[in-house]
Structure formats: structure tokens, C-alpha cells
Give the backbone structure.
Amino acid sequence: MVIETQGLTKRYGKVVAVDGLDLRIEAGEVYGLLGPNGSGKTTTILMLLGLTEPSAGTVRVLGLDPTREPLSLKKQVGYLPDSVGFYNEMTAWENLAYTARLNGLPRDLSRIRIERVLQRMGLAEVAHRPVSAFSRGMRQRLGLAEVLLKEPRVVVLDEPTLGLDPEAAQEFLKMIQSLKAEGITVLLSSHLLHQVQTICDRVGLFHKGKLVLEGRVEELAQRILGGAYRIRLEATPLDGLVERLQALPEVSRVQTDTRGLRLEASLDIRPQVARTVLEAGAALHSLSLEQPSLDEVYARYFQEVRHAA
Amino acid sequence: MQPSPNKLRREGSPWTGLWAVFFKEMADHLSSTRMRILEVLILFSAVGAVYAGAQTLRQTIGEDPFLLLRVFTAAQDPLPSFVAFLSFFLPLAAIALGFDAINGEYNRNTLSRILAQPIYRDALLWGKFLAGLATLALILLALFLLVVGLGLVFLGVPPGSEEVGRALLFLLATLAYTGVWLGVALVTSVLFRSAATSALAAIAVWLFFALFWGIIAQLLAQAVAPFDPFDPESELRQTEALLAFSRLSPNTLYAEAIQVLLNPGIRSLGPVLITQLQGALLGSPLPLGQSFLLAWPQLTGLIALTLLLFALAYVLFQRREVRA
């Protein structure tokens, strides 16, 4: 177990930011801490790193207590804060050199490592330019370079794709995924569920300081959405199709939207759907299986919670 | 669960990373535009003051065993003396170097990144404080040597060993005084999130002591020990009360310390009764050791105040949330 918390709680006055969190993350996992803004993700991360003290509960990261053994913990854990900042008047290289000195790396070793991480993050050409000229995406990559500088065993990323354009975000996610291949455990937080769901092995959904759902994305979809298969089709005309499709035994739900129909089914019944559409005399333009999205899981879960209440 | 005593201790040394922070901050200070402005300001005023002072000295005093010390203190009318310049500019320089020490890290979003490195907060705060102090010491030493050199050029008289000793002690007192204002700036930089507010607050504290504390001390002294025209002792009591109150200000402490150190003729900082002067050789200078003893409480007061302010900044900073 790389990260383990028990009953972790943080109170700011009367506000409970994190409420009795039990988190277990295994070595080599990519774990997504997901949830809306203000649901306690960043507070949790700060407690894991010993940057804020828990009000109650225990934390162990790599077997170390963040409040009592922060130095050996922070030597092995890299942290990329949300909206990471650098010293603007210094170059990328100088910023990393400062971090290397704070980590107590010898000069020769730090030179080699800085070169390597800048190369890896695609920043080698701008290494000697001041950070003030960097774009948001470049800063984020410099942040990851800084994290990798200490060759960490665990990497904690807070909202890593926030403020990046879609292309840069995808690129950045690929870089994060490449960490897994090196055996680094990754904990990332995000409120952009659909962006990070592809790279997470497991996710935990946060709501008001509590971990309300946890598991693999497919499992959660299966559990919350019932039928995990969602079929999208475009056909003209739509008249009468809804009733016919609804009549199929595997279909639990049919929705109409601007582009066509969405079915929820317990099995992959694309052939039957195609046959039904053609038998109804309609023209079939497209038929596809949709991946379940976490956004939906999240929205549906809270719909149910509210209905139950 | 009962925590064992060992569990209450933190691992490792609080000084880990101190020198990394120190050298980075020092490099920042020395290359900053802020520093350029300060250097030019201080340089011009110091050279002006010394030149004017030396002119007066050449005209008036022919024989003075403490010529170098006179260079520090002599003033010619529109221009104040070198010492007066220093006591005016150095607090400002210290505030300029310290007012955004901690809140600057918040505002640049660098604090959580730096604290995620294997160092304690102690190292960050100490590193910043020491770097500020070292930078100020550097300015001060450069200025001091410049003034001594200029004094030599203008007057052509080499200083004696006692004079050099006094000048070095004066340097130490000035550094302690500067440390107080660096401490004030450090505290405001932890207290206020906005750099502008922090600078204003620190300058307000400085103005308070520079302009208003004298008046307030007078009012307090009158309230505590009212003057009775039929009781001559009441006058003495009031004077002593005034002295005690005004010594709460670092400005007073510094002024008294350098007065004693730079003027060997001064034998007491408080009121002196005529009976106490019996047998004294008036006008003869005190030896260096005696002057140092006289300035000792003031010197330790300034150093203690610096440490106290640093401790306050430390406590505030340790409790501050990393998050904005």
C-alpha cells in the first residue's frame, strides 16, 4: 500500500473540508481523485504531503507519517500544485536548479537530471529562456519536469489539465500515463472527469468532503448506470422508431436528442437495433457503442441520491 | 493511542535547504531593480553628506583626535549628517527588501511548490531573513568603506585604532537597527496577503516610531509623572519616565547607541545631577570599553527586538495555511 488514510478529517472552523476519508492506493496505480471544485480534493492532497495538518485520522504515504517525517517523504513524493507558479525572472533551468538544490542533489547529478527532464518534457530548446515568456502548457510541463527531477516513487498532481487547451491536455495526460510505465504511483485530482477517466486505473468520486464512489470506471458505470452499454444511432425518419426499439427486451431506456437516439441496453445489441431500424423502413446513418462517461456516472449518482432523499 | 515522546519530534534538521534559499534570495536581491534604486539613492546621499561634512570640518576644527567619527556626524546646513542619512534610509531599505518575502511566494503561486520540497518552513523563513540581512550588511559595509575612504581623501588624516573600533561598533549597531526593520517587514509580509498592503503597513510602523512616538512618549510621561512646580524632584521623575517610554522605540535605542559610540565625550544617556559630576574631568573622552558598556543595553535591546520580531513572523508563518 503506497498511500493509506484512515478516518482522515480536516475541519476549518465549523466547515468540514474532508470527512472521514479512507483511501488506499496501491503501488503502480493511477488513481483519480475526482469531484467538483471545493469538494476537498486539494485539502486531501495537502494532508497527504504534510503541508496541512489533519484534524483527525491517520495518513501513511510510503509508510511514512507526513507530519512527523516530512523530509524523507517529500524526497520521494513529487507534487504538482494546481496553477503552479515559477520565478518569472529566472529561466526554466535556473528554476529547476533551485529545486535540485533544495532537494540536496549534488551539482553534477542535478545537471544531468535537469537536462534529462527538460528533454523529456520537450522544453530543452527553451531551457534558458525566462519563465515569464512561457505559456500555460509549458509551465505545466515545467512543473512535471520539476516533479520528475527528484525521481519520485509517488507523484501527486492537482488539477493537471486545468486551463490547458484540449490538445495540450491530451498530450499532458499521455505524459502522466508514461509515468505508470516506470512504476511510479500517480494520484491526480480533477473536476474534468471525462478528461482523466481514460488514464485512471481507479477513481474515487468526492462530494462534500466524502468519498462517495470508488472503483474502476467500468465498474462504476455498471453499478450506477445499470446497463453499461449505451448505443447511439442516427436514422431518418425517427417516427415510430422509439416505440419499436423500446419493445426490444434488452433495452431499458430510449432517449431522443438533437442528433438521434440513445439506447441503454444490458447487452451489446447493435445487430438487433440495426435490423429493427431497417425493418421500420428508416435509413440508418450511423450506429455506435458509446463508452460510459464518468460525468454521467456522477450526474446520475447524485440524481439518485437526491431522489432517495 | 498515547503518542510516544519520540513521535512528537520532527525528523531531520530544520536547516535543511537553508543555504539554497539563502543564496537564491541573495542573488535575487542583488540583481533586482529595487536594489539598483536603493543603491543609487543611498550612494548619492552618503557622498553628499560626507562631502559637506568634510567641508565643515576642514573649516572649523583643526585639532580633533576623533576626526573620522566627526565625518560621520558632522552636518552642514541643508544637508544632514551621514549618520542621520543612514538612520533615515536603512529602515526604508530593509522594508523594501522584506515586505514581499512571504506574500510574494503566495502571489507567484510558488509557495506550495517550494514547501513540497524536502525542507521545513524554518529554512525558507531563515533563509529569507538572513539573505535580507546579509544584503543590507553588504550595502552598509560598502557605504562605510566609501565614507571612510572619502574622509581620508578630503581630510588626509588616517584614523587611529580606537576610532576604527568605534566605527566598527557603530556598524554593528546600525546592522542591528536595520535587522529590526527587516523583522517588521517580514512580519507584515506574513500577515498581509497583498504586497502593497504589507509595504504600507511596514512603512506606517516606521512612520509611527519616527514621527509620533516622541509626542506620545511625552504625553505618557506627563500622565504618569506630572510636573509639580513646587517639587523639583518631580521634574527628574518626568524626565526619567519620558526616557523610559521613548526607549521603547527602536529609533531612540539606535540614536542613543550611536551617540555614545561615535562621541567619546558622552558619559551618560540619562539626566545627570550636579553631585554626580564631582571629580569628573569634563570634556575628556571615555575609553572605548566604557563607551561600549554605556551603549550595551541599547545594543542588546536592538538585537533582542530583531529576534522577537523574527520569532513572531516564525510563529505566524508556521500556522499559515499553504493554500491561498
